[in-house]
C-alpha cells in the first residue's frame, strides 16, 4: 500500500465526533482511512487531465508531448467510489498496454517496489517486479555475476516469453536503467515505453558506472582505492562486487525515506556485482535510440545528484522528462504517490 493518510477531513479539519467513552472506534478509523485513500487514488487516476503538482511532483515535457492544466485543483472535492471505478475503466481502455515491468537498481530487489505494486494494481494495471541475477531472493552468488547479459537474464527471459504482439512498459531504477537499455536493444518490438527512474540512461559506448563517476570517482580510481570493494574470489584476485556501509547507504539512498522502509532496506540489500557496472553498452540508433524513452528526476537525490540527472537528459534527450520534488534516490519509498501518478501519466501518452 502507498502512503497512509491521517484521519482528517478533505478540508484539513479534524473530526470531533466521538463514540462511547470518547475514543473513535477502530472500525471507524479504518473506514475513514480507506475513504481518504480511495479519494487520493481518484485524483491520481485523473492524471490525464493534469500536469500540476501532486504530492510534490512536477512534470516538464520535451518533444511532441503537450502540456495541460488540471481543471480542478487537488483540494477540490473528489469523486465517490463508483465514479472512481468508471474513471479507472475508461482510463485502462485507452492504454496501449497495462503491463509495467519494474526493474530495481544496484543492491535492491523486487521487494523495493511493494508500494508501487499495490498502487498500480488498485488502478487495474498489471505490475511485475523482477529480481535481477544475484539480487533479492535470487540464489545466484553475486560474486559470480560478471556481465550485464547475465545480470539482466531474468528480464530477458521475461521478454522472450511474451506473446509476439504483447508489449510492456519497462521501468528501471538507478543502475537498473542499464538493464532496460540492454533490453531495448534486444527486444525493441516488445517495449512500448522505457522509463528511467533516476536511472543510468547511458549513451552508446558508456558503462553504467560512468554515470556515478562524478560522485564516486573514475572507474579506475574506484577499483584501486574504494573501501567498499568485495574480493569474492580472494584478496589477490580482481574485485567482484561492492557494498556501501549501512550509514553510507542511509545518506546516499534514503535521506527522505520513512524509517520503516530504511529498516526494510537495511536487512534486504545485497552486494552489487561489479562486472555489469563496468561493462560498456553497445546501443544502436535503429533499436535503442528509436525507442520511446522517459526520464523521472529526483530532486533531493544524494546518490545521483539532480545536476547529473539533468546532464543525462541533456546529452541523451528522452521523449519526456518528469521531476519529483522532495524525493531521495528511492521515490518508491519517499514519494510513492508522486511516482505512481507519473507512471500512470506516462502510460497514457499516445
UniProtKB/TrEMBL annotation:
Its EC number is 3.1.1.82. The keyword Transit peptide does not apply. Residues 1-26, 51-80 are annotated as: Disordered. Residues 100-337 form the AB hydrolase-1 domain. GO terms for biological process: jasmonic acid metabolic process; salicylic acid metabolic process. InterPro entries: AB_hydrolase_1, AB_hydrolase_fold, MES/HNL. It holds the Pfam family Abhydrolase_6. Keywords: Hydrolase. GO terms for molecular function: methyl indole-3-acetate esterase activity; methyl jasmonate esterase activity; methyl salicylate esterase activity; pheophorbidase activity. The keyword Hydrolase applies. SUPFAM superfamilies: alpha/beta-Hydrolases (SSF53474). Residues 57-79 have a biased composition (Low complexity). This is Pheophorbidase.
Amino acid at each position: 500500500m502507498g502512503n497512509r493518510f491521517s484521519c482528517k477531513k478533505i478540508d484539513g479539519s479534524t473530526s470531533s465526533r466521538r463514540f462511547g467513552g470518547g475514543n473513535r472506534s477502530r472500525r471507524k478509523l479504518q473506514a475513514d482511512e480507506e475513504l481518504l485513500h480511495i479519494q487520493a487514488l481518484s485524483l491520481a487516476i485523473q492524471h490525464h487531465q493534469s500536469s500540476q503538482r501532486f504530492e510534490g511532483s512536477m512534470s516538464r515535457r520535451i518533444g511532441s508531448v503537450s502540456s495541460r492544466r488540471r481543471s480542478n485543483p487537488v483540494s477540490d472535492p473528489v469523486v465517490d467510489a463508483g465514479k472512481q471505478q468508471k474513471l479507472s475503466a475508461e482510463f485502462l481502455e485507452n492504454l496501449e498496454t497495462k503491463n509495467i515491468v519494474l526493474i530495481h537498481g544496484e543492491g535492491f530487489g523486487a521487494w523495493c517496489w511493494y508500494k508501487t505494486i499495490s498502487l498500480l494494481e488498485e488502478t487495474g494495471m498489471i505490475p511485475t517486479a523482477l529480481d535481477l541475477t544475484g539480487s533479492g531472493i535470487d540464489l545466484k552468488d553475486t560474486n559470480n555475476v560478471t556481465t550485464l547479459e547475465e545480470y539482466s537474464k531474468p528480464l530477458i527471459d521475461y521478454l522472450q516469453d511474451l506473446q509476439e504482439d504483447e508489449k510492456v512498459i519497462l521501468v528501471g531504477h538507478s543502475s537498473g536503467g542499464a538493464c532496460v537499455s540492454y533490453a531495448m536493444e534486444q527486444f525493441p518490438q516488445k517495449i512500448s515505453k522505457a522509463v528511467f527512474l533516476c536511472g543510468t540512461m547511458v549513451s552508446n559506448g558508456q558503462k553504467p558506472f560512468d554515470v556515478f563517476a562524478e560522485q564516486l570517482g573514475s572507474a579506475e580510481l574506484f577499483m584501486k582505492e574504494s573501501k567498499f570493494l568485495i574480493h569474492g574470489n580472494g584478496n589477490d584476485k580482481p574485485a567482484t562486487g561492492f557494498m556501501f556501509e549501512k550509514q553510507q547507504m542511509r545518506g546516499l539512498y534514503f535521506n527522505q525515506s520513512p524509517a520503516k522502509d530504511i529498516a526494510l532496506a537495511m536487512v534486504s540489500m545485497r552486494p552489487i556485482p561489479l562486472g555489469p557496472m563496468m561493462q560498456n553498452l553497445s546501443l544502436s540508433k535503429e533499436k535503442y535510440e528509436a525507442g520511446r524513452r522517459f526520464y523521472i528526476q529526483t530532486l533531493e537525490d544524494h546518490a545521483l545528484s539532480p545536476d547529473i540527472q539533468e546532464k543525462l537528459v541533456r546529452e541523451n534527450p528522452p521523449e519526456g522528462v518528469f521531476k519529483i520534488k522532495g524525493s531521495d534516490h528511492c521515490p518508491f519509498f519517499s514519494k510513492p504517490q508522486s511516482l505512481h501518478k507519473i507512471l500512470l501519466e506516462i502510460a497514457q501518452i499516445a
